[in-house]
Amino acid sequence: MSNFDKTLLGKNIKFLATQKGIKVGDIETEAGVSAGYLSRLANEDNKNNFPIMDLIFLISNKLDVSVNTLLSVDLSNLTPNEILLSQFFDKLSKDTQDNKLVWELESRSKLEECKQQGNHPLFYAYEPRNPETEFYYHSTYDSNALIGGDCYKVIVGNKWLYLMCVNKPDDILDGYELYFISSNYQGYPNIEQICKAYSESDLYNQIVDLRNQAAESSRHVKLSESVRNSINDYLTQDEIDSF
Predict the structure, then answer these.
(1) What is the pTM of this model?
(2) 152: closest CA among 199, 224, 198, 210?
């Protein structure tokens, strides 16, 4: 945490507390620090008085924001739509950590196969470029965006959320594009663009954190509800037989 920015933390605490109608003094009292401690963070030398992680976690829970967002995103600089997206990413991250969401991996090699077969919603009904050029997918944001790596997807409500890794070789930029995908009444894919974020974006760090959690989640063992019920029935059978 050598690059930790206490000024950013102080700004975010003040911003979120104001948004949620919480007094900073109440947070300080609950945290057991002196009055004005958190307010002074924005004006102090970042090399001194580093707040302990327990305090940061307490603030994170109190203000309902992830530690990563609290420390790396200038929330006061976001537009209302970006704030909504930031809250969305935070909930996705929390639900992933709590195993409420289990992400699935779509590898780059699988996407390359989908390019040839035309059976992927993000390639559906789009004319391919010259087949001899580098692999691509049709970005609804940027015609120059290319596949930059693996894709991760998860069901959110009744829609699939796709997290696409992209890059722009000409500009040497890495980024992400997110989409909701569902089926319309005729069975065709309905694609809704959510956002894009290249490395200079204010939301980039949040999406990178979400992508890392999605990657970890995709490696977990997946069990259907039926399988879980069968296993639980078996595990509790001895208890039932003992009565």
Answers:
(1) 0.79
(2) 210
